[in-house]
Design a protein that fits this description.
The chain has 3 domains: 207 residues, no CATH class; 57 residues, no CATH class; 74 residues, no CATH class. It contains 10 helices and 15 strands. The strands form 7 sheets. Strands 13-14-15 form a 3-stranded antiparallel sheet, with no helix packed on it. Helix 2 packs across helix 4.
Length: 377
């Protein structure tokens, strides 16, 4: 049974405006319900960017009050767009701690992606002995009290016996990087994500809970079909978009387009932080298959778009993958020539991938960008 899909109907609350006060905590105005799976499908990377912006990019500011004000602005911006991490009272220290952990995991993802390593193609012996990868020192984001597995493995663990593969442990807290073999790094990532998701995910069925929103033909939860009255509507197979969310609430019951049932297991996060770690788990599994590009409204939203690495050449319609600054034919078998960067149908003799049609991370982001542009004209 496959049960790896995040529930597209899972909802969270964000706010039109968030103001932070050191004494009174956050002031939350105008709560808005949204669907993170469609409005924030790369939220783990947005949180990592927020941490980097407020922690690392403000360190050069000498004025303490100005530095504090700038970090406060970063926090308010992120909380306004996406909401609180959990249902508890907001704690800035805890927010920054969790954001730092996610930042570290994202940095490791980028380090692995830069090496272009596919676990299915890596020899297990090489992964344990010869492939070494430098990643940020976990001490940048954790301490003895943090209960962060990478920190415990890098800083606190004793050196392994000489018979084991070479792994640097008990490293200095001051050094910038940690050198780890590929096999252990995958284990560290998986263990970290698993620990963070413990008790944070619930297996359920899509469309099991009755809906109560008003729609054109009936109120979900009860409908009259001839002589029969149906209630509950579990497993209603409604039209959905590319991200899995409902296309519209304008559903009509008629003989021409009847509604059918669909039974599907989904994973539902406990809160937004659990959702973020679920996205980390998803990226770890899909690491060789996808890359990320900034949203066209990146300066405002901080979101990135998930893109497949294998694309279609707009001239010859063959599958291509980016190698350095050019595209080469995608290798599907051992007999394929991966070095073929020549396209016979292109005027430049080079493969060119079809441009992506989607430029914004979410429909709401596109709408905000257009509204802002209209206001300035």
């Amino acid at each position: 049974m496959l049960a790896g899909r995040i529930d597209p109907d899972w909802r969270w609350t964000r706010y039109r405006k968030v103001e932070l006060s050191r004494d009174d905590g956050p002031k939350l105005s105008y709560a808005i319900t949204y669907f993170p799976t469609s409005d924030a499908p790369t939220l783990h990377r947005s949180l990592a960017k927020a941490f980097e912006d407020q922690r690392f990019k403000t360190t050069e500011i000498k004025d303490r009050d100005l530095r504090r004000s700038r970090r406060k602005q970063f926090l308010e911006h992120w909380l306004t767009y996406f909401g609180l991490l959990d249902s508890n009272d907001f704690n800035e220290f805890e927010f920054n701690t969790e954001a730092g952990f996610v930042w570290w995991v994202v940095q490791v993802f980028d380090a692995l992606r830069s090496r272009d390593l596919n676990p299915a193609e890596v020899d297990a012996l090489d992964a344990a002995t010869t492939i070494m990868i430098d990643v940020p020192n976990p001490a940048k984001v954790a301490s003895d009290e943090s209960n962060f597995f990478p920190f415990q493995r890098a800083i606190l663990d004793p050196q392994p016996p000489k018979t084991e593969s070479y792994i640097k442990r008990q490293i200095s807290r001051e050094q910038d990087t940690w050198s780890v073999n590929y096999l252990e790094l995958l284990e560290v990532l998986a263990t970290t994500i698993r620990t963070k998701l413990q008790d944070g995910v619930k297996l359920t069925f899509a469309e099991l809970e009755p809906r109560k929103e008003s729609v054109k033909a009936f109120v979900l939860g009860e409908a009259k079909l001839g002589e029969a009255t149906l209630t509950g509507f579990p497993f209603l197979d409604v039209p959905r978009g590319r991200t899995g969310s409902r296309l519209s609430h304008e559903i009509e019951l008629d003989k021409e387009s009847p509604l059918n049932l669909k039974i599907e297991t989904v994973l539902q996060p406990k809160d937004l932080l659990s959702f973020i770690w679920m996205l980390c788990a998803e990226e770890l599994v899909e690491l060789p298959e996808f890359e990320f590009e900034p949203c066209q409204n990146f300066d405002e939203c901080g979101n990135v778009l998930k893109r497949p690495r294998v694309r279609i050449c707009q001239h010859c319609n063959r599958q291509v993958i980016q190698r350095a600054a050019t595209y080469a034919l995608y290798k599907t078998t051992d007999d394929d020539d991966v070095a073929d960067v020549t396209c016979d149908k292109s005027s430049t003799r080079a493969h060119e991938a079809r441009p992506h049609r989607r430029k914004y991370c979410a429909p709401s982001c596109d709408a905000k960008k257009r509204a802002k542009a209209a206001k300035s004209t």
